Amino acid sequence: MTRKSYEVQQSEQIANDIEGYLYEQEHKSFLRFITCGSVDDGKSTLIGRLLYDSKLIFEDQLASLENDSKKVGTQGGDMDFALLVDGLAAEREQGITIDVAYRFFATDKRKFIVADTPGHEQYTRNMATGASSADVAVILIDARRGVLTQTRRHSYIVNLLGIRHAVVAINKMDLVDYAQETFQGIEQEYREFASNLNFESITFVPMSALKGDNIMDASTNMDWYDGPTLMAVLENIDVSKETSDDVFRMPVQWVNRPNLDFRGFSGTIASGTIKPGDKVIALPSAKTSVVKSIVTYDGEMTVAVADQAVTITLEDEIDISRGDVLAEFDHRPEATDQFHASIIWMHDQPLLPGRPYLIKTTNKTVAGEVTELKHKVNINSLEHEAGKTLELNEVGVCNLSLDETIVFEPYADNPALGSFIMIDKITNVTVAAGMIDFGLRRATNVHWQAVDVHKEARATQKKQKPVVLWFTGLSASGKSTIANLVEKKLHSLGKHTYLLDGDNVRHGLNKDLGFIDADRVENIRRVGEVAKLMVDAGLIVLTAFISPFCAERRMVRDMMEDHEFLEVFVDTPIEICEQRDPKGLYKKARSGEIKNFTGFDSPYERPERADIHLHTGNMTAEAAAEAVIAKIEETYLTS
């Protein structure tokens, strides 16, 4: 049916059977798809063309489009369909898409929501956001440029995020004279790349979004192509999945307690169905009960299905909190604090394994860290590459460890329970998106062993309170000298101590680590764990490390109980440190012999609120040591 004949039929149906027309519109199938690819491949133009051809533009919008096309358009005064989507002023000025733009349109067969995502490498994280809720990816390729790195990156990411159907729209065919060999060459190159991906279907369409070739109607300029138009693919592609075997899962978002007589658990059902009388289990507590009722704003339901937001009441009063998961009793998801995952890094600052981040799942936020970066993925070849960090837009496979147990399922089986984001604890910025592959078996086999002689008993025996005195400052600031003097004074007072010095631990415990940022983080993590064990032994622990990053010093503080960690900032101006320079390190750094030297090409993040602040530019090491003793004497040197 042509577009014109469809419009005539639609008008007749509205006039003769308005109720039937409305029923058909309400019960049309629904498709979410994303447009992606490299910058300037024509994504916004394509969506603008779809909106225009779908007659979903009001007259005032059309007039505005015609006016804007003349002022800021890129088509020499002709209609610039991209302007229908590129709504941000910065986008119109630069001619690129920055944010994710969602648009609705419909045809006689289907309703659509399309996400127009950025093509520029800088905004790959926005593209991943749009892909997370899509069923189909329309991957645009400029016929003049072929398959680019960003094409490969977007294809890999949408596949990683669970999209199983790809439509490769080879655009701007009008600029290559509609050449069949150009289309076939790009198709072959893309198929070779995508052979290692898990797409269930890949459809190739040669087209011109600007001219309308093979968008809604078959192009007369490419009679060598006998495949479907882009719209025909989108209208007929089957993205339905068998849900009858899906098991019930509902992350609890809120405990609904409006009064003493009602207690329900609210959330959006992630998978499966539920009805009153079904037996459920709450995880991770493993408490069980039976569904009493399913409540919504519109009243009670006899059955609820995936994607519905409901409140469930239970027959029994069991303890359930936000962050728990209600699940089918006979088919339970897993619970663990360690898992294997794929992550997309989305921040300018690199991933540093060992650095603490916040891990946010559907309904729970916990502290955690990447314990091991197993490999990075080369976007061009899909080969696995070794690496210690991830940079912006890189994809890696890693092991993560959390401070608390979470309930999960592999992302491939249940995206709601298998996805997470990583958040920087200092800036609260989202730095990564992750997909859980599986839980680590060893996490379920390792448990805390109870002991009878505990920390308090050991400290009482030593007549002191255990604490970590964490000396931090630039190289040659005097950390080791002052820490050594403090330990000598404590020893003379009969106190039980141990000094962990930065240079000394690199001869043994940390001799495998270098001085790049990732190794510095791991260096401090290991020292923190050793210091924690020594505090458990009842000791006063002194550490002398540059420890340049606030995040890692905070990580060690969080390992300890309250009042067991004192940050001692040895604040010495870099000019004085360089004058001392007992190892000649500053001289070597200035000459370029040493890389990643703190204070030069590697940053030092000054403590904002140190527990003890020593201004050593105008005080001796002996005076500084006395100041530390005076600070801790009353609290820590008596039992």
Structure description:
The protein has 639 residues and is of the alpha/beta class. The chain folds into four domains: 3-236, 3-Layer(aba) Sandwich (Rossmann fold), CATH 3.40.50.300; 249-328, Beta Barrel (Elongation Factor Tu (Ef-tu), domain 3), CATH 2.40.30.10; 334-440, Elongation Factor Tu (Ef-tu), domain 3 (Beta Barrel); 459-636, Rossmann fold (3-Layer(aba) Sandwich). The chain has 18 helices and 28 strands. The strands form five sheets. Strands 7, 8, 9, 11, 12, 13, 15 and 16 form an eight-stranded antiparallel sheet that branches. Helix 1 (3-16) packs across helix 2 (18-26). The protein is flat. The N and C termini lie far apart (89 Å). Mean pLDDT is 84; it is low at 87-98.
- The structural domain count equals 4
Shape: flat
The CATH topology name of the largest domain reads: Rossmann fold
Main beta-sheet strand count, sense and barrel state: 8 strands, antiparallel
Distance between the termini: 89 Å
Tally the helices.
18
Fraction in helix: 25-40%
Label the CATH architecture of the largest domain: 3-Layer(aba) Sandwich
Ranges with pLDDT <50 over ≥5 residues? 87-98
CATH class of the largest domain: Alpha Beta
- Provide mean pLDDT, rounded: 84
Quick overview of this protein structure:
The protein is an alpha/beta fold and 639 residues long. 29% of the residues lie in helices and 28% in strands. It has 4 domains: 3-236, Rossmann fold, CATH 3.40.50; 249-328, Elongation Factor Tu (Ef-tu), domain 3; 334-440, Elongation Factor Tu (Ef-tu), domain 3; 459-636, 3-Layer(aba) Sandwich (Rossmann fold), CATH 3.40.50.300.
